[in-house]
Amino acid sequence: MTTDDYKKMADTLPHQPGVYQFMDADEVVLYVGKAKDLKKRVSSYFGERKHRAFKTNVMVKHAMKVVFTIVETESDALLLENTLIKKLQPRYNVSLKDGKSYSYICIKKERFPRVFLTRNIIRDGSTYFGPYTSRSTLKIILDLIKQLFPLRTCNFALSEQNISKGKFKVCLEYHIKNCKGPCEGLEAEEDYLEKIAQIKNMLKGNFGAVKAHFKTEMAKYSEELDFENAQKIKDKLSAFEDYQGKSTVVSSTIRDVDVFNIASDEKQAYVNYLKVVNGAIINTFTLEMTKNLDDDEKDLLSFVIPEMRQKYNSIATEIVLPFETLLPEDNIVITIPKIGDKKKLLDLSLKNVKYFLLQKQKQEIAKLNKQTPAERILRTLQKDLQMAELPMHIECFDNSNMQGSYPVASCVVFKNAKPAKRDYRHFKIKTVEGPDDFASMKEVVFRRYKRMLDEETPLPQLVIIDGGKGQLSSAMESINGLGLADKITVIGIAKRLEEIFFPGDSIPLYINKKSESLKLIQQARNEAHRFAITFHRNLRSKDFAGTELTNIPGIGEKTAEKLLSHFKSVKKLKQAAREDVEAVVGKASAGKVFRYFEHRE
Fold first, then answer.
1. Number of structural domains found in the chain
2. 8 or 269: whose pLDDT is higher?
3. Which CATH number does the domain housing residue 304 bear?
4. Is the dihedral of CA 477, 482, 486, 490 positive or negative?
5. Could you tell me whether strands 489-494 and 499-501 are parallel, antiparallel, or unpaired per DSSP bridges?
């Protein structure tokens, strides 16, 4: 992946936390990384090479694209990165063993519950809070709980029977006031459970009363000028306020679920999929679809979900969706959450799919902005004329004659919105007598495309006929006769009001006079007219060069042209009456002509 490739996607990267994946041409993940700011982090791979490790340069060179997943916090990014590295085992990541890397606080399901740190989740009814990405923060929280709510740390089976029989004795923890001795019945179970309820509130984030308690303690120490203890309380309060106790991407309350969300615009629909196994996201993917006329988002989800589940080998029996939809599998439970961890996952999926949609829209805008002038003009012309194809190859026809003499036609060719002069063609009219522009147009259009078909030359996407409805109808006779009506767009342009006519439609199209597409049509029309006139003049000049009229003293080329155009030949001119010649070129020139022929005889 080059720096130029990165520049094309740079504007679509968000300044948000998330996980990015470098992939090769076969979409094999080469590297997974986390970022507090995705745009800044990914851009660092495309700076100066001398500041990057050799292995990093090799990885970037083999990468073909970068995909990313947005999350809520930097801690979530760390957790998702950890999960994806274990699942995908990318070549350029440090190999992670599939151990339990997340820390949780467990409130054990037992009489007089213990509260302790663990990496293992045992689904025995115990309550788990986490995961926690910072061990130091977690230690502060546990110390805080221990200070505020003295609990037992022993693993004795404190049943009523065991306590009443006096099987246990209080330990050192009781004597240093870290425990109130429930093992000897010195603390009522009701009081102990009230402390557990308060701890749960704290770990859920409901610690308003705790904060008030700490502030009171700080104020008391400050009044006593015991600033050391006041600072300790402040540090604990800050740590408690900042800790990340719940994660969007890893949850101890969720097992195996598939999460889908959808976003769409007029043409495209995008479906985001999160595969959650044992409470952790192990796969994320966003699918792009082209919509038909009236595709409903519910129908699109019904179509996509079975395909995605099969592709990622999902066996989850629960699917989290934003709304009800029909699925072919009968044993699937559809959940539409309003609150809780599943709702957070659904929101995360929606956030990613909306950003993917925004990313695609930005790419389209960037593509339009980076178009060459020629491509921009042709796309405008395609839209104005409602063409199915981009008119990369345009041909324009025009006729030229002078009072029926020297009838000719021209065909000019534009490729990529520019004149292709090597491909210009001119025609001498062969089958038409007199000044019949319609018949002449029919003849040259037929000759042009009959030859292209015979030679199997690529046909143009657009043909422009210089003239109104009559000229266009004549051209279409040949187009229809050759069976090309469905293969070529043909239009006529009338000079007076620059009206655009389509075959079989009497109502003209008026393109904005300032439009680049109309200017291209006019340029082709003017070029065809110029080329036809030039060919016509060259033919006349060639004929005049061989006539004796230009040898008459005082008779120039223009006068000779007038005489030949009117009388058709020198022979007929000699037979004409003097008055008729004077009517064409005047008495002086007529006198010179007659004196010349008299001396020649």
1. 5
2. 269
3. 3.30.420
4. negative
5. antiparallel
Structure confidence at residue 244 (pLDDT) = 42
The 3-state secondary structure of 95-141, one letter per residue: CCCCCCCCEEEEECCCCCCCEEEECCCCCCCCEEEEEECCHHHHHHH
Closest CA to 503 of 529, 460, 474: 474
Give dist(CA 81, CA 476) in Å, integer. Answer: 64
Helix (H) or strand (E) holding 202: helix 189-204
At 489, the pLDDT band (50, 70, 90 cuts) reads very high
| Residue from 424, 119, 68 nearest 252 by CA | 119
Q: What is the mean pLDDT of residues 331-347?
A: 88
Q: What is residue 113's predicted lDDT score, i.e. its pLDDT?
A: 93
Radius of gyration for the alpha carbons in the chain, expressed in angstroms and rounded: 43
Cβ atoms 524, 517 nearer than 8 A: no
What is the distance, to the nearest Å, from the Cα of residue 169 to the centroid of all Cα atoms in its chain? Answer: 70
pTM above 0.70, yes or no: no
Cα–Cα distance between 488 and 479 in angstroms, integer? 9
Nearest to 377 by CA among 468, 494, 462: 462
Q: Which domain holds residue 167?
A: 103-242
User: Are both 267 and 353 inside the same structural domain?
Assistant: yes
384 in the same domain as 315: no
475: which residues sit within 8 A by CB, 6+ positions away?
397, 441, 442, 445, 463, 465, 490, 492
276, β-bridge pairs: 257, 281
Give strand ranges (E) for 305-404.
318-320, 333-335, 393-402
